[in-house]
Amino acid sequence: xxxxxxxxxxxxxxxxxxxxxxxxxxxxxxxxxxxxxxxxxxxxxxxxxxxxxxxxxxxxxxxxxxxxxxxxxxxxxxxxxxxxxxxxxxxxxxxxxxxxxxxxxxxxxxxxxxxxxxxxxxxxxxxxxxxxxxxxxxxxxxxxxxxxxxxxxxxxxxxxxxxxxxxxxxxxxxxxxxxxxxxxxxxxxxxxxxxxxxxxxxxxxxxxxxxxxxxxxxxxxxxxxxxxxxxxxxxxxxxxxxxxxxxxxxxxxxxxxxxxxxxxxxxxxxxxxxxxxxxxxxxxxxxxxxxxxxxxxxxxxxxxxxxxxxxxxxxxxxxxxxxxxxxxxxxxxxxxxxxxxxxxxxxxxxxxxxxxxxxxxxxxxxxxxxxxxxxxxxxxxxxxxxx
Length: 387
Ligand SMILES: Cc1ncc(COP(=O)(O)O)c(C=O)c1O
Fold this sequence. Notes:
By secondary structure, this protein is an alpha/beta fold. It has 12 helices and 12 strands. Helix 1 packs antiparallel against helix 9 (about 240-275), helix 2 runs parallel beside helix 9 and helix 3 packs across helix 7.
């Protein structure tokens, strides 16, 4: 069984028990009083923010973080939003939820959005780009920021799967006007369910806070901050102190987990590069150093080879996934939610890449023996396939 990456240590259990005993779950404590949610938001802003000041809101899901970002920017009916065809369905759902049209873009060998095609798909209706740092792989944020600037588009980063990842030393989620993170069960850190929305624009932060909990405007705690704020759409996205406190505890564990995941991935890659021919492509996004290290992707030359490799990894008990089996992660699976007819011929490039790529989960808990076991298995299996 897959081991979740996050850690729940004894201090976390003690602190959560104390909170439960206190029965003080509501995030608003009155003016000038700091809650667990406030503290988490401050800590998260500091965690991602050294290079740019950030404001954070903890809310009830990564999907709602995306919906809130789109609503805060006033994106709605008829507007187009560019997203990769390979992302979790929530990215597309958020766009459809606000009435806008998700325009799908192929990925390239980096396993992130193809920036050449991205630019070609811009029209007069395009309002925003949602680059998705899927599996912790960083998109080409230099190129995406350049395109957004030329065409006057917003960038909303989907960082659901890449909390703490970086591009050229800057945290993912801080390049766009909004960063949207998930804290659900299978993420690097988790509050059970949950999400975070970040921005460096204080006016947008106030608007997003209002959309996340419009009623807060009438209560004593946030009344002053929200007195001049309103929006055309409203959501109900507030969380309790339990998530706020759990978020703080999880954030403390984050650097340790990230360091171990990255080092495990680099060790694996080094072994493969030393022992295997360079016919094998190892997609690492656009910044191997900033990669979160949660996943190793291997792109083979033929689908049959990917299937053979999968069989041998399954047989040996490794957590492995041929990419095409990630059903919620491809545009051709979400035909029912797209407001137009999906055209598969436009996405054969992504289909071809995915049909030759295997995804291996890297575990934080791996021992030295586990690493030797997986690397020697991979090297043997790939050599048998002629690599
Ligand atoms: C890329 C991506 N975007 C958005 C989401 C949505 O997050 P949540 O499940 O917290 O709503 C997820 C969740 O898995 C995701 O992987």
